[in-house]
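The instructor's notes for this session suggest beginning with a concrete chain rather than abstract definitions. Hand out the sequence below and ask the class to guess, before any prediction is shown, which regions might be ordered.
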Amino acid sequence: MEKLAIFIAKGGTGKTTTAVSLAAGLSADGQRVVLVDTDPQGGISSYFSIESTGGLTELLDGKEARLVRVRPNLVVIPSGNGSLGDQSLRLSGPIEQTDLFGRLFAELHDTDFVIFDCSPLLNAITQGVLAYADHVLIPVSMDYLSAVTAVNTVNAINSLPAEERPKILGILPTFYDRRTKISRVILRMLKDHFGDLVMETIIRTNTQINEAPSFKKTIFEFAKFSYGSADYSSLLDEVELRLKKSSGK
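After discussion, reveal the predicted structure:
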């Protein structure tokens, strides 16, 4: 079972869209995927128009969480009843954070991928996700503050104890517009700083990506011949290739 976190310590970089698109693409290829909404804002729940109760918040309270089937091979664990941020404050210490999701998901079987849409806050729940995850993918929009945050995020991950540190699968450029100088400058900054960590796939600015959630559809369903669909299809191939290389297969 591959456990992948989508995280950067900043909002508005395409975390939820990337998590949904990867989960949808993998499940369409026959992989059994669990998509977990760990953001108190409940972006995944809103995307699929899921009632948020009976989710991660309740699981942290020792209750059962709902596994909501949204597509064949794809189930969602919603964020919960809205107090997920409060739950993070209740976690007692680093030992509890480290083993948090290992304990919560101990009974999770018959699953090929668990994908986490993380909060932009590096709080106890996010640290628990990073300790549990095998890899983390970092989406970075093409603006200066996102580029700076990407550096800080990588430094924060690398400063975690080895047993709590996921491998960085890659830095994913998002909201790229080749017509603008800032996109070209930020992409060059990322490549100069991170080198091969930067994904070859670039997610271009695309109207259909923004429109798809309002129809409760993934980009592949909403506009399969769009740039957005092509870019996320390319990302799927690259993610699978990088995962194979990381595992030595």
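Then share the key points. DSSP finds twelve helices and seven strands in the chain. Residues 227-247 form the longest helix (21 residues).
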